[in-house]
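dude i think i finally got it to work??
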Amino acid sequence: MKKSEIFFGVLKVTFDFVATIIAFLIAYKLRLQTEPIPGFAKPIDFSILPTIKEYFNFSIYVALTLIIVFGIGKMYTLKVSYKFAKELQKIVGLSVVWIALIIMYFFAAREFPFSRLAMLYSWLLTILVIFAGRITIRIIQKITLKHGVGKRKIVIIGKGQIAKEIENYLTKDKTFEIVEVMEYTEETENKLEKLLEKKHFDEIIQTQSKKDILEFCNYNHVEYSFVPGIFEVQRTNIEIETMGALPIITLKKTPLDGWGKFAKRIMDLIGATTGVIILSPIYLITAIAIKLDSRGPILFTKKDDGTPMKRVGQYGELFKCYKFRSMHPNTHNLRYSKALLEKNVRKEGPLVKIQNDPRVTRVGKFIRKYSIDELPQLWNVIIGNMSLVGPRPHLPEEVAKYEKSQKFVLNIKPGLTGLPQTSGRSDLDFTTEARLDRYYIENWSIWLDIKLIFKTIAILLKGYKE
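look at this
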């Protein structure tokens, strides 16, 4: 999901909310200037007329209702696939549903404290102001597209009439830039890797039945779409749209594409900030204990040679991961010694887990058992390197040994905890861990995150077994 798409999505929500409140306040003022209309608008009785403050408070509630109705009606889909005229039609249709819900509420409450004419003005003005907002946003989008900002770079893989129709359709739409059209061959994947490095395209649309292209998209974090009927779809997380007369199915890597990503970020900020405040006494006690127990820094942030200790994050980007030091200083590189590798309990896969690790300090054993050593990573969550829930962040040398299909876990931010950590921790082999992480990514929801967080807290209170 491109940052420009997220920006315009948030802009629409914000504008619709503010526009609705403004429309209601204008309607209130307009009603005061309106002459009586026989059978509809009676003379104003100022003794029962709500104050401007009361009408403002009322407008906040109805603005929130409008956002919900528009959200259910997919007016805030970040990847817009319908034309502007259809967008205006949806605004009118959903606005009718919205005003009907308000009227139904007053009917059920058996009271109508506001003028009917004011409500009519409010409805009409809301539609007009939102129209104006959508037009303004479209103009801004066109300006940014002219400067190359926000364009989706597309590669079409296929041949024949279908591929030609898709190419003709996308050529007319300024939202897209066709990077290349190619037929599938045995060299296609190699060509795509070189092309991705050079052009950094966003999406592949395929019209030929070759499933390895889907795997290429998974581990390179490229969106994948295809013409239905090519092969059986084995995912429920799909998005269907049309390009001209052709139906196109997009396989979504995760529900975190779009608003899910925004919701998860809000949850991360609230959860991590709250965690830092509540756990601050533990931070202080741990720091003192580490200093008293052994020489060296409180945090483990550097390798033995003094270079920053980095982990692999979303899309393979490296970041500085914070942890309380649990080992004696200058012993990190010993993990690759023959003596310690013989104690590795995770011989299958890229990860190293040393049983009865002699490098670990006395305090280190305790804070590892209760995962206190990982609490500084709440700061990583706050600054945006990590999430509360997600695949664990691994070292670059470990990620380099991933199989191509396992690189799918890099599609989202790494987390403090995840499905594997609540299902067996180090007892799981890496293949199973990657499979659980993939399940989490493809089936993410806010409720799943909440469930895993509470499950993690329960496990931590008991302490992990080494």
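Residues 152-252 form a domain with the Rossmann fold fold (CATH 3.40.50.150).
im so relieved honestly
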